[in-house]
Design a protein that fits this description.
6 helices; alpha/beta; 4-stranded parallel β-sheet
């Protein structure tokens, strides 16, 4: 079997912002049931066990949404425990999260850093993000300063060390 990459939407279409540029909210609004609820730990366990069963070499989980941090930090702590439970020799596990950053506080920042999450946040230099974040931009820079950030020009928050 090949490496496995899994896109996880633990908070379904739920989001704590209403960004004009977001295509996903518009898509969710067109569904009969836009919000499918938060992912249960039973579903998470089935997802992790199945992914690990098929993975060879690497297994990556990319969390996005809606806004994936709405699932709560305890959900992610439990998810990582499931990864440990179903891990197998020779399979590297990688976690990534695409977040608007609004809920990132010291606890979240420490968790993402300590567990080596690749963390993507909006480009806060665009007028749209400045409109939505206002002074939160400065807070976000402070909270994320110790998370390793991969630099890309369009969708990952660039931080200066």
């Amino acid at each position: 079997m090949p490496p496995v990459n899994v896109l996880v939407k633990p908070a379904s279409s739920a989001c704590n912002m209403d960004c004009r540029y977001c295509f996903y909210q518009d898509e969710a609004d067109k569904r009969a049931h836009g919000f499918a609820g938060m992912m249960s730990l039973e579903t998470a366990e089935a997802l992790v066990s199945t992914a690990m069963e098929y993975a060879e070499g690497a297994c990556s989980f990319l969390f996005q949404g809606g806004e994936p941090t709405l699932a709560g930090l305890d959900f992610y702590r439990s998810f990582l425990q499931l990864e440990k439970k179903y891990s197998k020799p020779g399979v590297a596990i990688q976690n990534s999260i695409q977040t608007n950053g609004y809920l990132i506080d010291d606890a979240w920042a420490a968790f993402l850093h300590d567990n080596r999450f690749l963390t993507g946040t909006p480009n806060t230099k665009t007028p749209i993000m400045i409109e939505h974040f206002g002074e939160l931009i400065m807070l976000l820079h402070q909270e994320l300063q110790h998370i390793k950030v991969w630099y890309t020009p369009s969708n990952i928050l660039s931080l200066e060390k």
